[in-house]
Design brief:
Oligomer: single chain
Distance between the termini: 36 Å
Structural class: mainly beta
Number of helices: 3
Strand content: 35-45%
Largest sheet: 8 strands, antiparallel
Length: about 170
């Protein structure tokens, strides 16, 4: 059996995580990635969207209910914002899935990431919000960087794909 390789670059260029794309159902995501390590609902009673989460170690997939007339939970976002920990890259997916981390590695700095992005001619907007520096791509995906006190550099702490979407 051959492995399915998920290239994280596709999040920023194709808005996909392997074959996973926004609008898919919980069952479709589980069929591709396998059984999640964790599954829970948002615990905020004032949450208008009733978010349901699937987790595969540090990889999170967010499903929002009532996005369309079907009343079915649909994938609306995915992220891994835990790269400041060494063991958060692999995830806990089916054994025939592996991750191509692209530019992501533990401790990669903003400067190193920008060199790679420029060499690949990928366009982004850089901005700072509170203590996080974001590189935002055209599809609204983002790479997150925060100050590392030990190295005096901005290091990557993860990525997110949380566009505002509405399904029909």
């Amino acid at each position: 059996m051959s492995k399915t390789i998920i290239n994280l670059r596709d999040i920023f260029t194709k808005s996909m995580f392997g074959e996973i794309r926004l609008g898919q159902t919980i069952d479709e995501v589980i069929a591709f990635l396998g059984k999640p390590v964790g599954e829970y609902d948002s615990d905020n009673p004032n949450d208008d969207y009733n978010v349901h989460f699937l987790t595969y170690d540090s990889y999170e997939f967010w499903f929002i209910n009532y996005f369309d007339s079907s009343k079915v939970y649909k994938l609306s976002a995915f992220q891994n914002d835990s790269y400041n920990y060494k063991n958060t890259f692999e995830g806990a997916f089916k054994v025939d899935i592996s991750i191509d981390f692209w530019l992501f590695r533990y401790g990669i700095t903003l400067k190193e990431a920008e060199v790679i992005l420029k060499s690949e001619q990928l366009q982004y907007t850089k901005y700072k919000k509170v203590e996080t520096t974001f590189l935002e791509f055209e599809n609204k995906s983002k790479i997150l960087f925060e100050d590392d006190k030990n190295s005096n550099s901005l290091i990557c702490v993860g990525w997110m794909f949380h566009p505002e979407v509405h399904f029909e």
